[in-house]
Each structure stands twice: as structure tokens, then as C-alpha cells.
Description:
Blueprint: H1 19-41, H2 43-67, H3 77-87, H4 95-110, H5 123-134, H6 136-139, E1 142-143, E2 147-148, E3 151-152, E4 157-158, H7 161-166, H8 180-188, H9 200-212, H10 219-234, H11 239-244, H12 248-255, H13 266-286, H14 293-311
Helix pairs in contact: 1-2, 1-3, 1-9, 2-3, 2-4, 3-4, 3-5, 4-5, 5-14, 9-12, 10-12, 10-13, 13-14
Amino acid sequence: MEQQLDVSVSPHIKDKANVQKIMLDVIIALIPAGIAGVYIFGIHSLYVILTCVIMAVISEWVIQKIVGVKNTVDDLSAVVTGILLAYCLPPSIPLWIAGIGAVAAIVIVKNLFGGLGYNIFNPALASRAILLASWPAAMTYFIKPQMSFFGAIDTVASATPLTVIKGFAYKGLETSLSNKEVWFNLILGMRGGAIGETSCLAILLGGIYLLFRKVIDWRIPFTFIGTVLVMSFILGRDPLFNIFTGGVFLGAFFMATDYVTSPVTPLGRLIFGIFSGLLVVLIRFYGGYPEGVCYSILIMNIMVPTIDKFTVPKTFGH
């Protein structure tokens, strides 16, 4: 008796991973940075995170009901977008602005392009750019940490370290970087900045978890951070200071590695990471804005189709 062969359409290699499991891993990886942000900046940071997540989920459900497509709230992608957006916002941001940002991320940046898998920009970063253009004062008003590992400190208006170096606030921080306490606080997050971007140690723990779970590829975060490090040294700036301040770690591990808005080829990911890091350095050192992570990734999001086109492996036989 002849053996019967079943013929089916691709894909022929299947994996147990799905969108929900991947997003759950990302949420788990983001928890350390969230805990650090709430501890450092206070309970209002938790309210911002919850507001962004709740409004993102509600917006996803409502817009999909309106357009009559399958509801995808249970895939947890809206939750991840809400958390990432909150982590990009100042700890003192009014909740109503945070809520508008979550709606913009889900409705405008994600679903108007067709939903998950079709958006060309990272929703959280694009929404942050929208909020920065709409409410620049609120988006650039940062506070000092409420708590420090060296004891409680006051909560007052504070410039971020990058703003200080840029010369918009006051001089003298560069001369104090040899102080071990300064470096300790920079790495742990005891500085002005967005809720989820200040603690490099917490973000690194989450990034290592994602690498261990094979959720993200090492190429983008390592080349991103490495480029900022090397270019800062070449241009005569403190390389360690420039990777431990701003949103370099958060952007490298959680924003630039977004499946939808990053290249699919290994070579493409290397190119994406290198040019993202290069743009960060150019914007910081020669632009009028002290931080460049958000705009560097958004600019590279536009280039992803071109990168994929020229780095896709040749088909066998061609």
C-alpha cells in the first residue's frame, strides 16, 4: 500500500509562540523599570501608568468595535503600548494628557494604519512626539526623585542630566561625574527623567529576560547602545554618561526592537541599530533638543521597508 502524503500551505514550521505570549513576556520584562519608576518618583507615576494602560485598552476595544474588525484586546499589545507610553512620560504629567496620549497611540498611530502588524511607527514613541508638540511645557517639566538609596530627598522641578549638559539649565555637572555617588544614582535612576527610562539597571534586567526568552534579537540593542558609546568617545564626549542618561536603554531594548517597526533580516537589524544610535548622537550633540532617542527610532521606522528590501537574502536559484 502506497503511503499517502499530505500537502498543505505554508507555514510548514510552526511555533507555540503567539502574540499574547510574546506581549506577556514584554510586560514581565517591563515590571522592574515600573517598580523603580514608582519608587523613585512617587505614587503619581503609578497613576500615570494605570491611566495609559486603561485608556489604551479601552481605545483598542472601542475603535475596533466602530470599524467592525475582530477585537484583539486579549492579545495584550494595547497593554504593552500603554506601559511603554507611560514610561516615556514625565512623572509629573497630568493624567488627562497621559490619557490623550494613550488614545492617540492606539487610534491614530496603530489602528488607523490597520492595527497590529500594519503600523509604520512605534505607537508609544509616535504618541510621545504628538504630546511633545501639543503640550511642550508639561512634557519637559521633570522632577527630582522623591527617594534615593542615600535617603529621602525633596521633590522639586529639575532638569534632566542631558538638559544640564546641553547648557539649558546650569553648568558644572561634567566636573562632578567622577563622584561615585553621581554614577551610582545615574545607573540606578536617581535623576530627573521619564518614569521608566531612568533606571538603566532595571531596564537591563528586563532586556536580559527578553534575550533569554528569545523574544528580541541582540543585534538591535547591542549595536544601538554600542554606537552611542563609540560615537560619543570619538566626538570627545563622555561615552558612559551618554548611554546611562536619557532613554538609550529603554529605546534600545523595548522600542527599537518592536517586531512591526524594525527590520526582519539579521543584517537589517544591525543597520537599524547602528543608524538609530548615530542619529541619537547627532541630535544630542548638534541639534537643539537634548535627547534624541524618540526621534531617531521614529526616523528609522520610516527606513525599515527600504532596509528590508536591500538586505533580504536571495532566493535559492536566483
